[in-house]
Amino acid sequence: ADSDFDGIPDSIEFNNPNLNPCQADSDNDGILDAVELFDGTDPSDDMSRLEDSDGDSLTDNYENQESGTDPTLRDTDGDGLSDAQERFGLTDRYLTDPLDADSDDDGLLDGNEGGIRQRNGVLGGTSPADFDTDNDGLGDGQEQGLDTPQISLNGVVDTDLEQFQPDQDPSTTTDPVNSDTDGDGLEDGTEDVNGDGQRQPTETDNQLFDTDNDGMDDGWEVRYSTDAACDPTVESRLDPLDPRDANLDGDGDGLISLREYQLLEIADGVVIAEATNPCDPDTDDDGLSDGIEVN
Questions:
Q1: What is the pLDDT of residues 263-275, one digit of tens each?
Q2: N or C: which terminal CB in the chain sees fewer CB atoms within 10 Å?
Q3: Cut 0.85: pTM above it
Q4: Residue of 87, 105, 106, 103 whose CA lies nearest to 95
Q5: 124 and 98 in contact (C-beta within 8 Å)?
């Protein structure tokens, strides 16, 4: 573990009386402990330090010899994060490239992503070290409506254009930290089949729970649109782009598809969704059709 994210394991700091495992700069002299150890100065003595021309907590010697960053610029790549922050992950807990304004090539400057790494994900924004923070198949920049990469404070684009996914419809956006923005059971990237950020007529809408507005969510309709989910004697399949199927009884069990979707069971006072299969007349294979059991 490295509690202060200074690049020095707690075990080493704990056993060194000159180092504080909970403070990246033990002597508060403006130079990080790891940098002082590299320089050969005393991290417990605020009078023992080398020159830091740009005040980024990395000495000129460290920047020239180790990090390759500019000792006269606090933020060498112009992404809004100091060189020290990128090199050690001090506050956001992410290690990014201080020489690349867009470390993960998602089109967003590292300093604009705003996420803080947590044990179970990211808090407050997206990860500057992960092209697709929510792992839904769409890049963070595209989900936020970027059709071109952001330009660094140095006036350059550091994004790899071969990896960047431009949004073909910036007027629509999805949540880059929620893989299923509309909560329909389908990931955003699954609904945007070609991954271009623009809804095509053959795609469900990753911003709408129920694309065809028939009362049944897209995920449920997609689930029962395949042969694998249906009884082999039933030809009818659901279509998340066709609102007419809600009022059809495709499996001939006496229940229209919408009715099967809306079925509930109350057990111990708790309402439980117990939808039956709209393309299988006897969902539980007990010899009685779903319609007889429901009615």
A1: 987 777 776 777 8
A2: N
A3: yes
A4: 87
A5: no
